[in-house]
């Protein structure tokens, strides 16, 4: 039997009384377990919850483990509104990034995940986007996909503040013509914005909007091209509030 600290990323029904759960751990990365009888425990208010730290005990040699028991290590974080859906977004991104990585050490990413949850618990709404962008950068670095945002990968030259640059997966930023940038605005970026982004200067709203577009492109090779479900939930939640 193995003991690990863990957070629940996702859960789905399994047979009549059990569930299949995806747990994020520091020493084994993502593990998938069968939690037998979890539905009964959940109905009594004792089931696994997202955004809550646990000690879990599991066993098994294959990709699908058996969850023997779990114990809460702290009170649940009561995320609400946009912060709640941001937490679901982070859970989904980690799940998709690690699903093809079997039994890997993830202590650094686990610590970053724990920290971002606590940040979301008290963050102001207008700071949420900054928190998400900084976590996405951490995830990229952990997955070995960090980039030199202010260097043209073709020439090795630093970006020109007035120039336009396209993002090329697994290579980085490459200068493009203004005409090309007009034709493909979603994948091209102004040099001055890239310079501010590299310095984590979020003082201008246009830099933050650019960072969202850029990191979405950079994450695609890691998390896939299917739409993020949490993004749709956030949109629906905001539409209801209008």
Description of the molecule:
The chain has 242 residues and is α+β, with helices and mostly antiparallel strands. It folds into three domains: 71 residues, OB fold (Dihydrolipoamide Acetyltransferase, E2P), CATH 2.40.50; 79 residues, no CATH class; 57 residues, no CATH class. The protein is built from eight helices and eight strands. Strands 1-2-3-5-4 form a five-stranded mixed β-barrel. A hairpin with a 3-residue loop joins strand 2 and strand 3. Helix 2 runs antiparallel to helix 8, helix 3 packs antiparallel against helix 4 and helix 4 packs parallel to helix 7. The chain is elongated.
Outline:
By secondary structure, this protein is α+β, with helices and mostly antiparallel strands.
Keywords:
242 residues, alpha+beta, single chain, five-stranded mixed barrel, OB fold (Dihydrolipoamide Acetyltransferase, E2P), three-stranded antiparallel beta sheet, 3 domains
* Secondary-structure element string: EEEHEEHHHEEHEHHH
Given helix and strand content, the structural type is alpha+beta
Radius of gyration: 20 Å
In which order are the strands of the major sheet placed? 1-2-3-5-4
The major pleated sheet works out as: 5 strands, mixed, barrel
Mean of residue pLDDT values:
90
- What's the number of structural domains? 3
Percent of residues in helices:
40-55%
As residue ranges, the low-confidence spans are none
State the end-to-end CA separation.
50 Å
List how many beta strands DSSP finds.
8
Separate helix tally: 8
Structural shape:
elongated
Strand content: 15-25%
């Amino acid at each position: 039997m193995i003991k690990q600290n863990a957070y629940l990323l996702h859960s789905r029904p399994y047979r009549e009384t059990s569930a299949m759960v995806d747990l994020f751990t520091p020493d084994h990365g993502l593990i998938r377990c069968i939690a037998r009888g979890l539905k009964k425990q959940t109905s009594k208010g004792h089931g696994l919850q997202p955004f809550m730290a646990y000690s879990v005990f599991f066993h098994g040699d294959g990709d699908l483990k058996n969850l023997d028991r779990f114990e809460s290590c702290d009170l649940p974080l009561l995320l609400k509104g946009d912060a709640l859906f941001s937490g679901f977004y982070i859970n989904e991104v980690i799940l998709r990034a690690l699903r093809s990585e079997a039994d890997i050490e993830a202590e650094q990413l686990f610590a970053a995940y724990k920290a971002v949850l606590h940040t979301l618990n008290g963050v102001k709404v207008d700071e949420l986007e900054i928190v998400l962008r900084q976590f996405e950068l951490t995830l990229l670095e952990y997955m070995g996909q960090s980039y030199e945002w202010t260097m043209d990968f073709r020439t090795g030259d630093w970006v020109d503040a007035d120039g336009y640059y396209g993002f090329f997966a697994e290579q980085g930023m490459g200068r493009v013509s203004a005409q090309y940038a007009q034709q493909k605005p979603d994948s091209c970026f102004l040099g001055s914005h890239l310079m501010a982004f590299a310095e984590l200067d979020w003082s201008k709203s246009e830099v933050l909007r650019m960072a969202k577009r850029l990191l979405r492109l950079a994450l695609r090779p890691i998390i896939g091209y299917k739409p993020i479900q949490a993004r749709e939930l956030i949109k629906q939640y905001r539409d209801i509030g209008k």
